[in-house]
Specification:
mainly alpha; Transposase InsH N-terminal domain-containing protein; Transposase_InsH_N
């Protein structure tokens, strides 16, 4: 769900999108095949016990990308998701529900375990190459 703050920020940023390369990149990449891939793998990541609702798999994946692209530790990534509007808008987390660093770490490790992360990075690189970026 998009909050009033996020909607206002998106409207302001849209006027100056060239100043936000991360958000421009978000528009260039076709996230649908990546989201479909993640949803096919979903069974591996869903917990069996009750608790908080899970985060969007695409949002979690985007956060892992940010961590790699910006060489951030998991605590630094958590902090950046809270404080940087471009990170928050890129990942599309609800601003009141951002994963903590241990959740980000566990998710990244699960992606890396079965080569899912490298396959998804290959998909993104292929898209960027096709668009000459």
């Amino acid at each position: 769900m998009s909050t009033f703050f996020q909607q206002t920020a998106q409207a302001m940023i849209a006027k100056h999108i060239d100043r936000f390369p991360l958000l421009k990149l978000d528009q260039v990449i076709d996230w649908q095949p990546i989201e479909q891939y993640l949803n096919r793998q979903r069974i591996r990541y869903v917990r069996d016990h009750r608790g908080r609702p899970t985060y969007s798999l695409l949002s979690m994946f985007k956060s892992v990308l940010l961590g790699q692209w910006h060489s951030l530790s998991d605590p630094e990534l958590e902090h950046s998701l809270i404080t940087r509007i471009d990170f928050n808008l890129f990942c599309r987390f609800d601003e009141l529900s951002i994963p903590d660093y241990s959740t980000l770490c566990r998710y990244r490790n699960r992606l890396a375990q079965d080569n899912t992360l490298s396959e998804l990075l290959e998909l993104i690189n292929r898209q960027l190459t096709e668009k000459n970026l």
